[in-house]
Fold these 2 entries.
Entry 1:
Amino acid sequence: MRVIARLDVKNEFVIKGIHLEGLRKVGDPNRLARAYYEAGIDEIVFIDAVASLYNRNNLFSVIRKASEEVFVPITIGGGLRNLADIEQALDAGADKVALNTAAIREPELIEKVAKRYGSQCVVASVQAKRTASGWEAYMETGREKTGLQVLDWVRRLQELGAGELLLTSVDQEGTKSGFDVPLVRAVNEAVSIPVIVSGGYGQPRHIADLLEVTEPSGLCFASVLHYKTTSVDALRKSIEVARASRVK
Amino acid sequence: MKNIVVLDYGLGNVRSVSNALRAIGASAEVSHDEATILRADGLIIPGVGAFPHGMANLVESGLIPVIRKYIESGRPVLGICLGMQLLFEKGTEFFSTDGLGLIPGTVSIIPILPNEGRLPHIAWTTIRPSEQGRETMFDGFSDKEMRFYFLHSYAATGVKTENLSATVSYLGHDIVAAVQNGNVWGTQFHPEKSGPSGLRVLQNIISSSDGQKL
């Protein structure tokens, strides 16, 4: 299982909020990316936290620099609207693009990107919020309802050619109270492409709680790494321990 | 300083590969120009995408004779991911397509059943080097350092023992991870995205022709 650092970037700062709201500055994205690389991170995801709202793309210069100093896969998301934006993102040095709002507005975009650059480069980002009967997909950084049922939507995304899913629980995001385990299980069972889970990690027992039920392909960590409450090594250890205890 | 050309044939993560080369102290040039390629100290064929598309681009760009000429120079050629797959005789992605035929073998989908697990194989996986691989591509590596980033659904099959540098196990399937045939090298994993271990693989391959470290 991949250990992934997620850096939500606003202007030139990494920021962190709760439920994708109430953003606070935590540091320089390139400095953090370098530190995580040196600590042995498997992958880095940069999300432009405001581009989707204001139609801006200011993450490209961060990506350009990161790709010169960080030799692990880099994903960029937030505010990518069309093939031209995506081409620019890949040119800047990203290996994959994460698409949410644009994919909801124009699902065929996933297909177009997969055809042109290959499925491996298309990460469908899904922001899920609990409802009475399941989960609804949200867009515009977790602010806008879409009316799409998450489980229907992820199956559709797979059909369209998404190579991976980045599944964020809007309810759990930033709370440090654990992953949305039923959500992860339901999505993991609904699709056969890799699922990366983001939102909710606070302590090692949360990894054990998740792995007891289902195993995604990767886990994203943000504030616990940014604030140094844990380390890449410690997270890897927690995964190993959780796996070992599950086998018993 | 060694000058390495990253082959530009309209496919692949050329920037990532050039950045990795610069990080190990080589100079990197992305090019499809014959004279530039033939002057280089090493040639890298990157590649992300589908086999037929990759091969079609190579044919259309007229680069195949240039690659063959370059190989005769004895200097190292490295194919990465799809770039490695194109080195084989044939690919079966979508339909059967002839490859460059530089290494015997066929590229086929990894035979994972839907109930066994997921494709693509996107993961950091620890490889098992062959005896030959241990002395060449992975020279100086400890067991712990043999962890690399993979991203693929297809893999080489029917590879001869003497060409096999490493294998990797995914869901119980033994998959070809790295190959070598003389000065032609291939990695199914992405050395440019595999952290310090990946950079060392690049270094080992680049210094293979004359033993000179960068």
Note: Chain A touches chain B through 26 residues (CB under 8 Å).
Entry 2:
Amino acid sequence: MSTEKNEREPMFSPKNLKLLTSPLNLNNPITVQVLGICSALAVTAKLKPAIVMTLSVMVVTGISNLVVSLLRNGIPPRIRIIVQLVVVATMVILVDQLLKAFVYDVSKQLSVFVGLIITNCIIMGRLEAFAMSNKPWPAFLDGIGNGLGYGLILITVAFFRELFGSGTLLDIQVVPQSLYNMGYVNNGLMILPPMALITVGVIIWVQRYYNRSLIEK
Amino acid sequence: MHEIFNIFIKSIFVDNMVFAYFLGMCSYLAVSKTVNTSVGLGAAVIFVLGITVPINYLLNEYILKPGALAWLDSEFASVDLSFLSFIIFIAIIAAMVQLVEMIVEKFSPALYNSLGIFLPLIAVNCAILGGSLFMQERDYQSLGQATAFGLGSGVGWFLAIVAIAAIREKIRYSNVPPALRGIGITFIVTGLMGIAFMSFLGIKL
């Protein structure tokens, strides 16, 4: 049995960096953990709301993880969920007010989904699974990592939906007018909600095809 | 009366919580492996929505809305407490879910065991908070309308989860490509069901 004292992990050790990178692929919150689906599908009709949503979720997840991890030894088990909900709700109220102040048009597009970040399963899921039993800095990194993984899927879906559904990206016309003159028409079905589900299904298909370990038996 | 019926039918088919707004997807995907557990969870969601939306409507009407506090004292007519909506709604929802959990544990221990962690997770089910937030956004005119909306949304969610559970039970015997098995095919089937539900868009009673 080693007698050396527990050394402090360097801030960006491989173990900590793994917290940032594993949610991008093998532990992706949306396609592998199957969390946070609701908002991922609803705000991806255009790229701009998707980006704003990603940043909001990253901030809320990271900071909530940090706060709950700092409090983890003082929370009585019975009211655990309520304490977590209060922390997350407070962060979301702050983010909501910031969005209304700085990007009002996008916050109108996001409407109720900003409030729904409170019930975003990713945040509650990571609080329960990680922040309650880990130190503050790794918890913060885990929150940011999961936010990034979530964002990756959101931005991919929004990219395809906006490109094929409206011919634009970030509201800038990308499909050249000459294609429209030849008879190309925007695929209206892509803007509709069901296509988001099918797009995520295809992303899962591609991801599992290249990562055999994720396939369910 | 006509308006209430309209809202009820609309929130089941046209504004379906799952297919039109994607609320409650996490538990929808996780619990829909068998029809029995889906029926149990769906019934619990109908109950919770049917109770929390009217209560939150009353709170919104008499405390949270801008100018709502005028009934207390005319000085308070300019107070706007709507920024507290999130916290108050989620508190009511958490309390109601705790109540439902106790009732289910008492009357049907088998259902309680099969639902496991997903019963308390109804508290963070976006469909429940979403119901209250939509009720607030759409500004319903009476308690009856708000209740019709709550119950209708619950029934819509129930319909969705039972349907996908039935399909998933049958799909186990189909030749799904390995990479699509489980979650992948569920997403695609749900998308197709969403397209099917869009056929209700033109309903006017």
Note: The helical segments of chain B are 2-13, 25-31, 35-64, 85-107, 109-115, 126-138, 143-171, 183-197.
